[in-house]
Amino acid sequence: MLKRTAIMALAIGLLACVPGQVQAATGSIDIEVISSKANRVTGDEALVAVSLAPGINEENVGIRLNGVSVRSSFSPEPGNGRRMTGLVSGLSAGPNLITAWAPVLNSAASIRIYNSPITGPVFSGPQQSPYICRTAENGLGGAADGNCSAPSRTEYFYKTTGGDIVPLADPQSRPADMAQTTMSDGRTVDYLIRMESGTINRAVYRWAMLVPGGDPLAGWNGRFAYSHGGGCTAGHQQGKADQDLVLDDLYLKRGFAVLSSSLNVMGTACNDVLSAETASMVKEHVIESLGQAPEWTIGFGGSGGSMLVQMTAQNYPGLFEGVLPSASFPDNTLVIQPHCRLLYEYFDSPAAAGLSAAQRISISGINVEDSCRGLGSQIANVINASDGCSSAVPAELIFNPLTNPAGIRCTIFESLINVYGRDPDTGFARRTFDNVGRQYGLEGLRDADLSLDEFIDLNESIGGFDDNGEFSPQRAAGDLEAIRTAYRSGRVNRGGGGAAGVAFIDVRAYADNVTNVHVSAPAFEFRERLRATNGSLSNYVMFRARGNTNVNPMREEAVDAMSEWLDRVSTDSSQATPAQKVAANRPARATDACWANNGQRYNEPAEIGQPGVCYQNYPPFSTPDMRAGKPLGSNVMKCSLEPLDPSDYGIASPAQLDRLNATFPDGVCDWTRPGLGEEPLAGTDLSFGPSQIFSNVKRSLVIRTSRNRVRKTRRGQTVRITATLRPCPAVTWQRVVFERRVSRGKRQVWRRAGLQIVGGDSCRAQVTVRKIRRNTAFRARAIVTVGFDAARSSVRTVRVTGSRQAR
């Protein structure tokens, strides 16, 4: 682990009960966890900041963790004497309380922290079992426990003047061919890389940054880039964290710290919640290692990785301020892959032998025939309970309906079972895929690419998937509860939640004209969803290019444009919302564009049908959904049905109409209506377990009065009131308010007689009240505070009798 350069020891004693009354507060204290959200702390430590208002002397501030002073862990931030940071260690499992107080304040600042294991989970729910460890394959040696833990490892690399990144055995040496780079902040430094690897959340993480001269802060521009990998499998294994995920010249040369882990690779587990949880934990570790948080973080990734960053932007805001998806798909729910799989099962059957390549393209909407085949065969296997696991999962553990019916079910639905839950009838994960009423090839029929008989043959034969993901002659009916859950939980990415406050630049290397699964239509679908949800595309940009002479400058510009955008947002101190700040601070260079003709940039709106160089060179095509009549950007997963209208099919014979009615007995999709089960997003930062229970401590408060004889004066008598809180010792400074009952006209009211902050081991507060002329009732209150219920004492009356004060 890097030396925490920003954390210095500064000893100060724990403040105990301060005698006398507290003066009116002249400022305040704010406590903030800066390594993660306060309820996502892991690994028994957290980087915490304490900010002081003017009037508070830093030397007089006390800071406690669960009642124990941790003041020595804090030191002033360089150049900011009003803010202290410290790595607070020794957190208890579960809830913790950090408090801070200074004598000029009449109440303490508090923050609750929930500490989870470094092995997880935090909010993704119960972990998969069995789970195959791959630490040895990742260069970390054998796993130390069932959570696939392994010691961290540090390696060094450097970039040669020839452009290669190669290992460096001795980081103290400087090879003659070591290159230099000018970072985004203008500093020119040696291209020496430090890469740390280890395990967090049962995944293998890696992070890398430039460390010229061995100093991590000398090679860091103060920003993170978080890398995500593609693919899609059902999990049950630790995965591979390839070094290329973080040894990324595009970001390292600019001074970014580049982070990733094997659970941020969709090919490890097609589970975006688990990926977001892991990103939170890895970021936390790196922030604690560096001793400071980044200005902002870019999330980037291609293919399956693009799903992860875009879904995280909607569902777990704050992890990424900007995202750079490439070869993008919006989410892992409304995908075209299963439809391509069904189409090619039909296309490869004798019934479709007469269809030409052009007709097949018309049905799928994808310009190159084999691209739809690839989408079906390479990715959609996570529909199948026997096919969706990585080869790292032993075959004998995997479900087989005949030989191993109790085995691992390798589907995306099982991977997300903590989200979708189990079907009580089957015991399997609820499934969302639905194609009831869907008229495949409808646009081909309307365009006269298909005859009515060919259209009917297709839809009679298309079928669906059974509960095991095997082809079935019956259409697949999605579980309505799973579909509702998909909408509520954010598995359907509508660009809602936190997405409006995130900057998007879709970086597309165009591949629609070759055999490639990464067609561009899904990116245009997401644009329309985002526009429909938020009313604008003020936070969304699309870049397009093809060929290295065009793609390379596009990628460079994407990082620089995003960096300028986020720098401007981060310095916006207005009271505007994140969405307003992103829209207001978008730089002119962050606009739809393409690169063509050997790297020349053309700024043109990325709209389907928009005339110009970009559309001419990089036209988007369609999808099986859209060729079935579904509008661009529709969120419908399970369509509402309407009766079949014979006039939609031209001149149809009675026999053809009979076949159509038999194919669609309940009707056909009505795409003008919302989908069945379509519900609003339930919110962001949703947790699927384990539960985090914060309970307040109930307190009792007892008062007594002084017993000593007092001297009677013309101004009345003096009494000393003592209040004692239980339980004790206190784990925070607690305010006790003393009150006396006085007459206001004909009414008796309670008026403050003093207050005191209770601390230390006695949990006792005391005030002296003068001018007691007659029998007077007193009471004390302890106000509600973080971790503690309010408390009130019984009433105690002081009786004035001659020169003695009654008890």
Please summarize what this structure is.
This protein is an alpha+beta fold. Among the domains are: 29-116, Sandwich (Immunoglobulin-like); 337-489 and 639-669, no CATH class; 700-805, Immunoglobulin-like.
How can the largest sheet be summarized?
12 strands, mixed
Radius of gyration: 32 Å
Mean pLDDT: 92
> Structural class per helix/strand content?
alpha+beta
Shape: globular
Number of strands: 37
Side by side, the strands of the main sheet go 11-10-14-15-17-16-18-19-22-23-24-25
Helix content: 10-25%
Distance between the termini: 62 Å
Would you identify the regions where 5 or more consecutive residues have pLDDT less than 50?
1-26, 803-807
Strand content: 15-25%
What is the count of helical runs?
Answer: 17
Give your account of this protein's structure.
The structure is a single chain. This protein is of the alpha+beta class. Among the domains are: 29-116, Immunoglobulins (Immunoglobulin-like, Sandwich); 337-489 and 639-669, no CATH class; 700-805, Purple acid phosphatase-like, N-terminal (Immunoglobulin-like, Sandwich), CATH 2.60.40.380. The protein has 17 helices and 37 strands. The strands form nine sheets. Strands 11-10-14-15-17-16-18-19-22-23-24-25 form a twelve-stranded mixed β-sheet, with helices on both faces. It has a five-stranded mixed β-sheet with strand order 2-9-8-4-5, with no helix packed on it. Strands 30, 31, 33, 34 and 35 form a five-stranded antiparallel β-sheet that branches. Helix 2 (272-290) packs across helix 3. The protein starts with 28 loop residues before the first strand and ends with a strand. Mean pLDDT is 92; it is low at 1-26 and 803-807.
